[in-house]
Design goal:
CATH architecture of the largest domain in chain B: 3-Layer(aba) Sandwich
Number of helices of chain A: 2
Number of domains of chain B: 2
Largest sheet of chain A: 2 strands, antiparallel
Chains: A alpha+beta (about 90), B alpha/beta (about 400), C alpha/beta (about 300)
Oligomer: heterotrimer
CATH topology of one domain in chain A: Alpha-Beta Plaits
Shape of chain A: elongated
Number of strands of chain B: 16
Order of helices and strands of chain B: EHEHEHEHHEHEHEEHEHEEHEEHEHEHE
Structural class of chain B: alpha/beta
Order of helices and strands of chain A: EEHEEHE
Radius of gyration of chain B: 21 Å
CATH superfamily of the largest domain in chain B: Thiamin diphosphate (ThDP)-binding fold, Pyr/PP domains
Chain lengths: ~90, ~400, ~300
C-alpha cells in the first residue's frame, strides 16, 4: 500500500474534493426564470462555484455541489430565487 | 586540487559554493556565523550564483528552504543550538515533505544556562525528524560531506534532507589544511538539477502537503523510514565513489580505526574522535588493544555495520556529548538497541562527557577505557557522567 | 473597473470542497483565481483553507498550492519565488493566509518578507478570529466580539494589519472585502503588475464564527463597509486613496449606524443590550478613530507617513 502512494501528500485537482456536497443541503435554491434578469450576481457571489453559466447567457444551479447557503437568493436583485426545503414535495 | 588552510566553517562554505547551491536562507548564531558570512561574500562577489535570503529567524530560514526546494532549487541553511530548536517544526516539515535540503549544524549546547560551546544535544534533539544526520571529524571531511550530502539527499531512492554536523569551535573555528576539489569534478559528481518529482509546476498543478486522514498518514510517514533504509546504502555508495574520485573516503556510515583485533572499543561521533584515536594509539603502545568506531551517521543508525565492527570486542565505551535527562545516554541507548538481538555482544558502558564544551582530552579517553575495563570485570555496564565536579553522576 | 461579465468563466477553485456553506474564504479564492486567470501559485499556511482543500488525494485547487506550517507562509513564499525565478518562471507567488497566520503567529515572517521587499503578493483573508480551530480570538478580532476565548466580548482593540504593512513602506497595500469582489479583483490585478511586496487585507465575514445565517454573508460584508466598520482603500507607494463604496463615507453622516452591522451577528448580540452600552461605545469609538486616521492622512495629500 505504501508503495502505491506518492512521495508525500500530493493531491490532484478534483471537482467534489469533499464528495457530493449537494448532500449537505437542507434547502435548495430554485430560480424563477420568468423573473431572472441575467445580472449574474448569483454566479458572482456563490462561494462554491455551484452556479453555472449557460451558453445562452443564463444561469443554472449545480445541485451536485450546491450546499444551500442561500446567498444567491439573498442577493438576487429580482428576487428570482427561492430557497425551498429539501425533501418536501 | 588547491590546498588552503581553512576553518571547519570556511570548509563548509566552500562546499556550498562547489555544490552550486542556488538558494541560501540563514539567520546568524554563534558559532555558525562565519559559514553564512563566507557564503554572503561568495554571492556578493558573483562567485556563487545564488539568492541569499537574509531571513528574520531560523524558523523562517528553514521555511524559505522548504519553499525553495519545493520550487526546484538546491537549498542550504546552517544553524546551531537555539536556532535549531527554534526551527524544529520546519525541520520535521522538510523531512516529511521529502525535500533534499542540506543544513550544516554547528553543534552547540542548549540554554539555559547560556552556552556557546560544543555539545551534541542540539542535533540529537532532532533525531526523530526524518533527517539524515552525518558528523564530520575534520575540516576536510566537512567540505567533502556537504558535497556528498547533496548527492545522497537528491538520490531518487532517498529524497530526504541531510544534516551535516560539525563541532562548535572545536571544528568550526579550528584551521586545518584542506584540499579543495576542482569545480569540474564536483559538477560531474553532483547532477545539475534536483530531481523532478517535487517541482512546483504551473502546467501540472498539484496541492502539496495536504491533510492525510488516518487511513494514509501512517504509510506516508513510513515512507520516510523506507527512504532512510535506502539512505544507509546510498551513503556508503556515495562515500566510495567520492573516494575513487578524490582519494578521500571516510568509511561510509562509520569509520573503523584499529578495530580488527581490538578487545575494547570507543564509540562516538564528531571531532573528538581524533582525541579518542590518540588515546587508542597511546594505550596500544602499552599493550592494550583499543579500537575507535566513529559514527559518521547517526541517522540512519548503522546497526549492521556497528555489529560487524564490534565483533571480537569484549567491551565498548559509548561516549555521548549529550544528555537526555531520564535516559540519560542517547547514543549508548541506540548502540545497545542495535546490539540487543545479537547472540554475542560486548559489554556496553555509556559515558556522558564534554557537555557545554567541557574539554575532553586523550587522557580522558584513556581513563574512560580504564573505567570500561573495570565495568567489564564487574560484569555491569550502566551509564556514567564523566568528569562531573563534586563526584556523583553514575553508577560506575 | 472590471464588470461581472468580463470575469473569466473558468473556476480555479473547484466546487464540492470542504468549506462551510456560505464561506467567504471560498468566495475569495474563486475571485483570486479569476483575477489572475489561473496563472499563479498559492502558499497556504494552517487555517481554514488547509481544511477547505479536503483530504489527500483530492484538492479543489487548479493552481499549484504549497501547504505550509502556520507561522511560515511569508518565508516559504520568499524561498519559492526565488526558486521559480531561478527557473525563469515568471509566475506570481500568492500567500493566502488567515488573520491568525498573518497578524499573530505569522507576523514576524510577514514583517521580514515585507522589509526585504520580496516579490510576492500576500493576501490575508480576515474572518476576525481563529475560526478553523473553533472561533478563538485573534489579534484581528474587533473589540467587543464574542469568541470562545473572549466569552464576555474582547476587551482589546484589534491590530491594524494594513497600516502595519504600510509602515514597512512596501509598494502596495490595500484593504478589500468579499462583498465587493470586483474591487478585490481590480486590486489583485493591480498588485500582480507591481514588482516587490504587495499586501491585500480581505474582509471575510464568517457565518459560522460570527453567528449569522450563511445566506447573509455578502450582506454582512456590505454592511461592514456601509457602516464604516470596514474601510476600503489602497496605498500605492505610500499614498492612500479610498476606493469603491468607502469613497463616499468619509463624511460620518453618510455612514449607516453601526448597529445595522452589529445586529445581524450573534457575536455582537450582547453589545446591543443596555448593560453593555460602554462596550458598544468603545467599539463605535474605534471605528470613528480609524476614519479619523484616514482623514488625517488624506488631509496631508494621502501620505500615510
Amino acid at each position: 500500500m505504501a508503495s502505491e502512494l506518492p512521495l508525500t501528500a500530493i493531491a490532484a485537482p478534483t471537482k467534489g474534493a469533499a464528495g457530493r456536497t449537494g448532500l449537505w443541503r437542507t434547502e435548495r435554491p430554485v430560480i424563477d426564470y420568468s423573473k431572472c434578469v441575467g445580472c449574474l450576481l448569483c454566479w458572482l457571489y456563490c462561494p462554491e462555484g455551484a452556479v453555472i453559466r449557460r451558453g445562452d447567457g443564463g444561469v443554472e444551479i449545480d445541485y451536485d455541489y450546491c450546499k444551500g447557503c442561500g446567498i444567491c437568493a439573498n442577493e438576487c436583485p429580482a428576487k428570482a430565487i427561492a430557497m425551498v426545503e429539501e425533501g418536501v414535495g | 586540487m588547491a590546498r588552503a588552510v581553512l576553518s571547519g566553517n570556511e570548509a563548509v562554505a566552500l562546499g556550498v559554493k562547489l555544490a552550486r547551491v542556488q538558494v541560501v536562507a540563514a539567520y546568524p548564531i554563534t558559532p555558525q556565523t562565519t559559514i553564512v558570512e563566507k557564503i554572503a561574500e561568495y554571492v556578493d562577489r558573483g562567485e556563487l550564483k545564488a539568492r541569499f535570503i537574509t531571513v528574520e529567524s531560523e524558523h523562517s530560514a528553514m521555511a524559505a528552504c522548504v519553499g525553495a526546494a519545493a520550487g526546484g532549487a538546491r537549498a542550504f541553511t546552517a544553524t546551531s543550538s537555539q536556532g535549531l530548536l527554534y526551527m524544529s517544526e520546519m525541520v520535521f516539515w522538510a523531512a516529511g515533505a521529502r525535500l533534499p535540503i542540506v543544513m550544516a549544524v554547528v553543534n552547540r549546547a542548549v540554554a539555559p544556562p547560556w552556552s556557546i560551546w560544543c555539545d551534541h544535544n542540539d542535533a540529537l534533539s532532532q533525531r526523530d525528524a526524518g533527517w539524515i544526520q552525518l558528523w564530520a571529524e575534520s575540516a576536510q571531511e566537512a567540505l567533502d560531506m556537504v558535497i556528498q550530502a547533496y548527492r545522497v539527499a537528491e538520490d531518487e531512492r532517498v529524497l530526504l534532507p541531510v544534516m551535516v554536523n560539525l563541532d562548535g569551535f572545536l571544528l568550526s573555528h579550528a584551521y586545518e589544511p584542506v584540499d579543495a576539489p576542482e569545480q569540474a569534478l564536483v559538477d560531474r559528481f553532483l547532477p545539475e538539477k534536483t530531481p523532478a518529482p517535487y517541482w512546483i509546476d504551473p502546467s501540472n498543478p498539484r496541492s502539496y502537503g495536504t491533510i492525510a486522514a488516518p487511513d494514509t498518514y501512517m504509510e506516508f510517514r513510513y515512507k520516510v523510514q523506507e527512504a532512510m533504509e535506502n539512505a544507509a546504502r546510498v551513503i556508503e555508495e556515495v562515500d566510495e565513489e567520492w573516494g575513487k574520485l578524490t582519494g578521500r573516503r571516510y568509511g561510509g556510515l562509520l569509520e573503523r580505526y584499529r578495530c580488527d583485533d581490538a578487545e575494547v572499543g570507543l564509540i562516538l561521533a564528531g571531532s573528538w574522535a581524533g582525541d579518542a584515536k590518540e588515546a587508542a594509539d597511546a594505550l596500544r603502545r602499552k599493550g592494550l588493544r583499543v579500537g575507535v568506531i566513529r559514527l559518521r551517521a547517526t541517522r540512519p543508525f548503522p546497526a549492521e555495520r556497528l555489529a560487524e565492527a564490534v565483533e571480537g570486542m569484549d567491551a565498548v565505551a559509548v561516549v555521548d556529548r549529550s544528555l537526555s535527562p531520564g535516559l540519560p545516554s542517547v547514543l549508548a541507548a541506540e548502540v545497545k538497541a542495535a546490539l540487543y538481538d545479537r547472540a554475542r555482544r560486548p559489554l556496553v558502558k555509556g559515558f556522558i562527557a564534554g557537555l557545554g564544551g567541557r574539554d575532553v582530552t586523550p587522557l580522558d579517553f584513556a581513563r574512560i577505557v580504564e573505567l570500561t575495563l573495570k565495568s567489564l570485570k564487574e560484569g555491569v555496564g550502566g551509564v556514567e557522567c564523566y568528569g562531573l565536579r563534586g563526584g556523583g553522576g553514575g553508577d560506575g | 473597473m472590471v464588470t461581472v461579465r468580463e470575469l473569466p468563466v473558468e473556476e480555479y477553485w473547484l466546487p464540492g470542497h470542504s468549506a462551510c456553506p456560505g464561506c467567504p474564504a471560498a468566495l475569495g479564492l474563486r475571485m483570486l483565481g479569476k483575477a489572475l486567470g489561473g496563472r499563479f501559485v498559492l502558499v497556504v499556511p494552517a487555517g481554514c483553507t488547509t481544511v477547505i482543500q479536503g483530504i489527500y488525494p483530492r484538492t479543489p485547487s487548479r493552481v499549484p498550492l504549497l501547504n505550509i506550517a502556520f507561522a511560515a507562509s511569508a518565508s516559504a513564499a520568499s524561498g519559492l519565488k526565488a526558486a521559480l525565478e531561478l527557473r525563469g518562471l515568471d509566475v506570481p507567488v500568492v500567500v493566502w493566509a488567515g488573520d491568525g497566520g498573518t497578524v499573530d503567529i505569522g507576523l514576524q515572517a510577514l514583517s521580514g518578507a515585507a522589509e526585504r521587499n520580496e516579490d510576492i503578493l500576500y493576501v490575508c483573508y480576515d474572518n476576525e478570529a481563529y475560526q478553523n480551530t473553533g472561533i478563538q480570538r485573534s489579534g484581528s478580532t474587533p473589540a467587543g466580539a464574542w469568541t470562545t476565548t473572549t466569552p464576555s466580548g474582547k476587551r482589546e482593540r484589534r491590530k491594524d494589519a494594513a497600516l502595519i504593512l504600510a509602515a514597512h513602506r512596501v509598494p502596495y497595500v490595500a484593504t478589500a472585502s468579499v462583498a465587493y469582489p470586483l474591487d478585490f479583483v481590480e486590486k489583485v490585478r493591480k498588485a500582480a503588475s507591481i514588482k516587490g511586496f504587495k499586501y491585500i487585507h480581505l474582509h471575510a465575514p464568517c457565518p459560522t464564527g460570527w453567528r449569522f445565517p450563511p445566506s447573509k454573508m455578502v450582506e454582512v460584508g456590505r454592511l461592514a463597509v456601509e457602516t464604516g466598520a470596514w474601510i476600503l482603500y489602497e496605498v500605492e507607494n505610500g499614498v492612500l486613496k479610498l476606493t469603491g463604496r468607502s469613497r463616499a463615507l468619509l463624511d460620518p453622516s453618510k455612514r449607516r449606524p453601526l448597529e445595522d452591522y452589529l445586529r445581524l451577528q450573534g457575536r455582537f448580540a450582547h453589545l446591543l443590550r443596555p448593560e453593555n452600552r460602554e462596550q458598544l461605545e468603545r467599539l463605535k469609538k474605534s471605528v470613528d478613530e480609524a476614519w479619523e486616521t484616514v482623514r488625517a492622512i488624506l488631509e496631508r495629500g494621502g501620505r500615510v507617513f
